[in-house]
Write a structure and sequence with these properties.
- Helices cover 43% and strands 11% of the residues.
- The protein has 421 residues and is α/β, with parallel strands linked by helices.
- The strands form three sheets. Strands 4-11-10-9-8-7-6-5 form an eight-stranded parallel beta sheet.
- The radius of gyration is 21 Å and the shape is globular.
């Protein structure tokens, strides 16, 4: 690839594809080699070697026998991209706009909690890389750094707050106020995790970081939760395990919320944020998508939590197709679950998603090499996406629609495939 290509200075987005050229040039000319292989299977294997058993189990575990995780990947295989030739992609534009933010690509950092079990600095290096690449960063309520510290690391970049909603309304409002004050200007309520799904490896090893006093910093720095600790007679400095347990038992409490609570939550967020967007994450049925529109949600994330909550559930990509058909013109639809490369992003966009969240890929990068690992994984994904647009004949994101793919019947095997995914 020509590093002096004059088109790169005329493009509205960076020439992400040059990251490929760097990887080819540097080993032979500067002695630098790529940090590690970003092929998803090899990436996962290396992360497993780097992590503790607890870290690996939490990062890799899925609900039950992982059949939903399998379904997520199978669904991608039944759609094939149709490349177009002799298209002038020299000035291609990878960017998109999400809730008023112009970002580098329709790719964001999915909300993943307890990052300190993957790296001592937790969410901070991830938020920093998101800022550098101008990709939206979504902070989980189960995050292991204070909201304010993550915001500082993220600078002026676009960021969203994913809410696990307590049954303590005062605590919920405090979390939302802290988030908006810290520049998180979109609220995304996760609806599928009132408690964790049954994950065999985690259960068998008692693998729950918060009960070990790890990762509760986001809660421990909240003034309302600090008040709750004092009321319960818990000193977090002396009893980190009890403090961590009280925090996570307020978040993954096992007590479902219902649609009746949504008007109150939307009202509170709109009041706090002066009308900024409110979204629901975890939507998988057309009925729920229609209900989300009805109650006034600005967007939905079609997601099955990457197969970590309900085993044997519908693939997120299959759900996306149906939901777009039903409400695609009425709300902003985002996608999450099972993305492993640029072609997966393209397929989700072609099926009607406006934006995609990526999770496990950057978690593996964080586990392997901290900030550098996250940067390498996400720059590689951006390069992959930029190159695919170039060789596939897409000049901009708007051109990636259903005409860009050929889809085959849902003919998944009825037993688990054991091939590496």
């Amino acid at each position: 690839m020509d590093a002096e290509n004059p088109n790169k200075d005329k493009r509205s987005t960076p020439e992400w594809a040059l990251y490929q050229r760097e990887a080819f040039w540097k080993p032979h000319n500067t002695g630098e080699v790529p940090p590690f292989n970003t092929e998803p299977g090899k990436l996962e294997e290396l992360a497993k070697k780097k992590l503790t058993e607890s870290g690996w189990y939490y990062a890799s575990s899925n609900a039950g026998q992982s059949y939903t995780h399998l379904a997520n990947r199978q669904a991608f295989y039944r759609h094939r991209i149709i490349p177009r030739m002799l298209v002038d992609t020299n000035l291609r534009d990878t960017s998109t706009t999400i809730f008023g933010h112009k970002v580098s690509a329709p790719i964001g950092f999915a909300p993943i909690g307890i990052n300190k079990i993957y790296h001592p600095r937790g969410e901070l290096p991830v938020a920093k890389v998101a800022k550098e690449l101008n990709l939206p960063y979504c902070l989980s309520t189960a995050g292991s750094n204070a909201i304010e510290d993550v915001a500082e690391a993220n600078g002026a970049a676009p960021r969203f707050f994913q809410l696990y909603m307590p049954h303590d309304d005062e605590l919920t409002i405090s979390l939302l106020e802290r988030a908006f004050k810290s520049g998180f200007d979109v609220c995304i309520l996760t609806t599928d995790t009132w408690q964790l799904g049954w994950r065999h490896d985690d259960v068998a090893t008692g693998n729950y970081a918060f009960y070990k006093g790890i990762g509760a910093d986001l809660g421990l720095t909240d003034p309302v939760f600090q008040k709750r600790l004092k009321e319960a007679g818990i000193d977090p400095a002396k009893e980190p395990e009890r403090a961590g347990a009280k925090w996570i038992d307020n978040v993954w409490h096992g007590r479902a919320h219902s649609w009746e609570k949504m008007p109150w939550l939307i009202e509170q967020w709109k009041r706090i944020s002066d009308g900024r967007p409110f979204c629901l994450k975890g939507i998988q049925s057309v009925a729920d998508a229609k209900k989300a529109v009805e109650v006034g949600c600005d967007g939905i994330v079609v997601s099955n939590h990457a197969g970590r909550q309900v085993d044997g559930a519908i693939a997120s990509l299959d759900a996306l197709e149906q939901i777009v058909e039903a409400v695609g013109d009425k709300t902003y639809i985002m996608y999450d679950s099972g993305i492993r490369g640029a072609s997966d992003v393209v397929k989700a966009l072609a099926l009607g998603a406006k934006f995609c969240f990526v999770g496990r890929l950057w978690v593996w990068g964080l586990s392997i090499m901290g900030e550098h690992g996250v940067r390498h994984v996400m720059k590689s994904l951006l390069a992959d996406f930029d190159i695919l647009m170039n060789v596939g004949g897409f000049q901009n994101i708007e051109q990636i629609d259903k005409s860009a793919i050929e889809s085959y019947p849902k003919a998944y095997t009825m037993i688990s495939d054991r091939a590496k995914l």
